[in-house]
Amino acid sequence: MALLTYRDALNQALAEEMRRDPSVFLMGEEVGVYQGAYKVSRGLLEEFGPMRVVDTPITELGFAGVGVGAASLGLRPIIEFMTWNFALLAIDQIVNHAAKMRYMSGGQVSCPMVFRGPGGAALQLASQHSQAFESYYAHIPGLKVLAPATPADAKGMLKAAIRDDDPVIFIEGEMLYNTKGEVPEGEHIVPIGKADLKREGTDVTIVCHSKTVTPALKAAEALAAENISAEVLDLRSIRPLDTEALFRSAAKTHRVVVAEEGWAFAGVGAQVVDEIQREVFDELDAPVVRVTGADVPMPYNKHLEKAAKADAPKIVAACKKVLYV
Amino acid sequence: MATKVVMEALSPTMEEGRLVEWKKNEGDAVAAGDVLAEVETDKAVMELVARAAGTMIKQVVPVGTTLPVGGIVAWLGAKGEAVPDGSAPAAAPAAAAPKAAAAAAPASAPTAVPAPSALSAPPASSDRVKASPLAKKIAKEKGLDLGRVQGSGPAGRVVLRDLEGASAQTAAAPSRAPLATGRASTGAPGVVFEDVALTQIRKTIAKRLSQSLGPIPTFYLTMDVDMTRCAEAREALKALGPEGKVSFNDIIIKAVATALVQHPACNAWWMDDRIRIWHEANIGMAVAVEDGLITPVIRNAESKSLRQISAESRELAGRAREKKLKPEEYTGSSFSISNLGMFDIEHFTAIINPPEAGILAVGKVREEPAVVDGQVVVRQKMRMTMSCDHRAIDGATGSAFLKTLKTLLENPLALVW
After folding, report:
1. Which of A16, A17, A29, A60 is labelled catalytic?
2. Active site residue A129
């Protein structure tokens, strides 16, 4: 296996899938000549040409709509948003068109496409550029929502998303692009809807995804120093949600903490808690506790921003709470 | 900042209250805990207490007004402070969205209107054993009695670690495992009740008999008691002076409590999926009041002297008639007594006060010819009838209790034996 960055793992997935299937194409702002705002599409214009790597104007709604049309007619577009913050402009095409195409055409028209880009906060990009929108899209029937945390998952999940016959929301992380990890070469597919145990443990389960996997692992490390064995379950797929993995882990450790970047209210963790309390109530030794972003627009001030994020110390504190220590 | 004083739920079932009397006037200084007004609830006249300090700046409603729980009664604030704008319409208590007012109050003035105090919380909540779902599951599997485990979680919640290693000593006797037990809320040692699971035969009895006569399949047991010795004892005590004055009812309460300890199956609550056997005799005593009746409770009557019971029953009955009882003084009885002897009633049946499984209806003590040792003599006789919830009490069980009660009343010295 090669040691790749998350960015290059995505690049590899794009290139491999475009080579494999001529109906796959990439479209978005700066994806071609500039090779991507975050260099995810490096080398693709050169290899596949301007018909398959399409630079667009700054018109999110417009090019998302072009993508929906292309997908409806049998192509497999990958729509890159510079960030998911800007994709708010395109949400009508995603929610009202891509998500509903199959249902409202009585199954005659499908929409095999991927909307992808970085989500959540990076560093000091302020309120409008630091938002985690997983729960917005996971709310919508007809959409799948994926958020990989590691380079290997980034590659395997993007390949699965491109091959899926329905619209997939693929949320990456600006702060993850430079992280490195072992990535299997060639045909590496991570099935949609499967969570992954990033660390095994016996005393408490930390459910996390995307950028909260790193602080969750750090928290588990810190807890290990206090003889507390934490299990880290990376959801990877927000919708469909791997409830079996959730129930299995909750039944094993009896205590659950759910960490996410986004806001608490109606967040991804709220759904996780609902599933767990309903299905494995009798396995719980404590109420499930959530660690989320603070309930404010993300502050620009460096210290306030740090305070507003879900981090390892907050996860450690939550774990101790459910362990009554 | 001015804060609202709202009508609080002063009894578990209170939905509205009538303002009986102001205890603080506009302009009076008020300390937290001061009585602001007297309020008549569905059960009694209660005190509405200030939750914050300040000056009574506005009495919103006049005496005699009935307000829903949550309705604004008054405003507290700084001396001379005006009532906030827009509050005036709230003074009209009519039907204008009382529920909304109740819900809005804590949001708009969170520090001023804290959650109702423990006093107004449902009394049953303290009986509940708090345990995590996992702890409950494991206790059930292993037959552990959670009521005997000291919980280490928040508010005494029993959690997994409390059960580890505690298995041996907390394992309940397999034959008659209590589902739960309760400790005295006062912190006194000892278990005051235990819940026992329903056996199949009890389930069948409950189901079949409720089909026949429901929702409480009641049967009645009547017994004649010779009260001559009780009457003599009463006279003897009276001769000791005014302090020695006890009523027949006081003696009956004492005798019932003593008999209940010997027949715990009759000192029980029917709780649908279980029977709660009380280890203390908390005797509800029906008292007629102006527009109904109320049953103040003599607690632990089994361990009180006749003199204590007599003083307590007189005091409780007096306050019951003045509607001054607090909710905890008229709830939680384990068995009740209704006595209509003073109305010359010789025999009647009383209606069970659920979840209690029994109530004793007591008639007048009257002179009657009786045969004693082959001679017709005049004796003081009393007829008592016990109403039994057949789901909890069988005929033989109730009869045995009544037999003991009769023996005690006919030999009152046994009450101090």
Report:
1. A60
2. yes
Put simply, whether B189 touches A (Cβ < 8 Å) is no
| Both structure tokens of B402 | 């009544």
The Cα B337–Cα B405 span in angstroms is 13
DSSP H or E run through B66: strand B66-68
Candidates 3.40.50.970, 3.40.50.2300, 1.10.3210.10, 3.30.450.20; CATH matching A2-183: 3.40.50.970
Q: How far is A256 from chain B, CA to nearest CA, in Å?
A: 13
When scoring B130, B132, B141 by the number of chain A Cβ atoms within 10 A, the one with the most, hence best to mutate, is B132
Segment A108-143, tens digit of pLDDT: 999 999 999 999 999 999 999 999 999 999 999 999
| Range(s) within chain B of domains with CATH label 3.30.559.10 | 200-416
- pLDDT, mean of residues A233-247: 98
Specify whether the CB–CB gap between B169 and B143 falls below 8 A.
no
Q: Where in chain A is the domain with CATH 3.40.50.970?
A: 2-183
- Assembly ipTM: 0.72
Which pLDDT value is given to residue A37? Answer: 94
* Residue among A282, A232, A227 nearest A257 (CA): A232
CATH for B3-120 is: 2.40.50.100
CATH of B123-172, one of 3.20.20.80, 1.10.150.120, 4.10.320.10, 3.10.450.50: 4.10.320.10
Its pTM stands at 0.54
Residue of chain A nearest B156, judged by CA positions: A324
**Which CATH number applies to A196-322?**
3.40.50.920
Strands in B29-30's sheet, in edge-to-edge order, are B3-6, B72-77, B54-59, B29-30
CB contact under 8 A, A324 and B133: no
User: Which residues of chain B form CATH 4.10.320.10?
Assistant: 123-172
From chain A, pick out residues whose CB is under 8 angstroms from the CB of B154.
324
pLDDT of B86 above 90:
no
- Per CB-CB distance under 8 Å, the chain A contacts of B158 are none
Is A15 near chain B, with CB under 8 Å? Answer: no
Residues A207 and B231: their CA atoms lie apart, in Å, by 75
Positive or negative, the CA dihedral A193, A198, A199, A205 is negative
- How far, in Å, CA of A11 to CA of A35, rounded? 10
Q: Which CATH architecture has domain B200-416?
A: 2-Layer Sandwich (3.30)
